[in-house]
Structures are given as structure tokens and as C-alpha cells.
């Protein structure tokens, strides 16, 4: 079963600015979803990438595929030269530190991005723009799927597309 072959990573509990400083599960501090906001938590992003890379290394012996999942994965795909995974998945996500990106560090790593058109948390346009930025900066193998009417969640349409992507990387 696929779910038994995928490692599960829990996000740490931390104060998140956009949540009014409340402690919530998050890989890094999200300061704002305003595209003009200059402040971003680069230190937190780098820490999370390092932590996830360590978890992936520990899981390699038990996990046949190597997929990196989430907004932190988009940062790692774009900026981390030591990222060695078979694919990256970002659902309802965005590319942090996009203004600093000059070229995608892992341009041959396949990417699947899915985003609901009615996402009230991470605006749909952020997802689409993130994908466009990655493609314009050299990402070679990427898929962006939009899901009409879907909020910040997942449904059968997205899961079917996701399973196809994962199976193509594991098999």
C-alpha cells in the first residue's frame, strides 16, 4: 500500500506571524501572504530543509522512493544544491524567497504542483506564479494542476493526479 511506503513528517509547533503570533504547526514563520512583503523567514526555511533532509536520509533504507513534499520543498528545489530526491510535491503551496531566485538549483527534479482555485489561505495566483517562476528559472519537468472550486484542501481529483505522479516516480 502506498501510504505504508511514504514517510510522515510532522511540522513543528511554532509561533507564526500571520496567525497573530499563535503557536501552530508550520515549517517556518509565514510573515505575510502579501506579494509586496519583503520580510521572509529564510533562517527558518533553511533549518526546515536541513531537518527534512536528515529525516529523508534516515528513511532511505525503508522508503523506496524519495519524494519531498510542501512549501519547504519548493524552497529546497529552487535553492538547495544538495537536494537529491526523485520528485517534489507542493499542494496549495507557494515558492518562498522567490525574489532571491536566479536559477533553479535542481532543474532536473520533477515537480507536481496542485492548487484549488478557491484557496482562502494561499491564494491560487501565488501557486500559479510560483510554478511560472520556477519554469522561467530553468525547471525542466513540472506539472501544475488547478482544481476549480477547491479551497485549501485536497479532493479526489487532486489525489488521483498525485497518486499518478508518485507512482511514476516510485515504479
From TrEMBL:
Top-tier EC class: hydrolase
Any GO molecular function: palmitoyl-(protein) hydrolase activity
Domain of life: Eukaryota
InterPro entries: AB_hydrolase_fold (IPR029058), LYPA1-2/EST-like (IPR050565), PLipase/COase/thioEstase (IPR003140)
Catalytic reaction equation(s): S-hexadecanoyl-L-cysteinyl-[protein] + H2O = L-cysteinyl-[protein] + hexadecanoate + H(+)
Family (UniProt): Belongs to the AB hydrolase superfamily. AB hydrolase 2 family.
PANTHER family: LYSOPHOSPHOLIPASE-LIKE PROTEIN 1, LYSOPHOSPHOLIPASE-RELATED
Name this protein carries in UniProt: Acyl-protein thioesterase 1
Organism: Rozella allomycis (strain CSF55)
Amino acid at each position: 500500500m502506498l501510504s505504508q511506503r511514504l514517510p510522515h513528517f510532522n511540522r513543528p509547533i511554532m509561533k507564526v506571524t500571520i496567525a497573530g503570533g499563535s503557536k501552530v504547526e508550520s515549517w517556518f514563520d509565514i510573515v505575510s501572504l502579501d506579494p509586496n512583503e519583503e520580510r521572509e523567514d529564510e533562517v527558518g526555511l533553511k533549518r526546515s530543509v536541513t531537518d527534512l533532509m536528515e529525516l529523508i536520509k534516515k528513511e532511505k533504507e525503508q522508503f523506496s522512493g524519495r519524494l519531498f513534499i510542501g512549501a519547504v520543498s519548493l524552497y529546497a528545489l529552487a535553492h538547495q544544491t544538495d537536494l537529491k530526491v526523485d520528485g517534489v510535491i507542493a499542494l496549495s503551496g507557494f515558492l518562498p524567497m522567490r525574489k532571491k531566485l536566479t536559477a533553479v538549483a535542481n532543474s532536473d527534479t520533477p515537480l507536481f504542483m496542485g492548487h484549488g482555485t478557491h484557496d482562502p489561505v494561499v491564494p491560487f495566483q501565488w501557486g500559479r506564479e510560483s510554478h511560472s517562476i520556477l519554469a522561467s528559472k530553468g525547471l525542466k519537468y513540472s506539472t501544475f494542476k488547478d482544481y476549480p472550486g477547491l479551497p485549501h484542501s485536497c479532493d479526489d481529483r487532486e489525489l488521483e493526479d498525485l497518486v499518478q505522479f508518485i507512482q511514476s516516480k516510485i515504479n
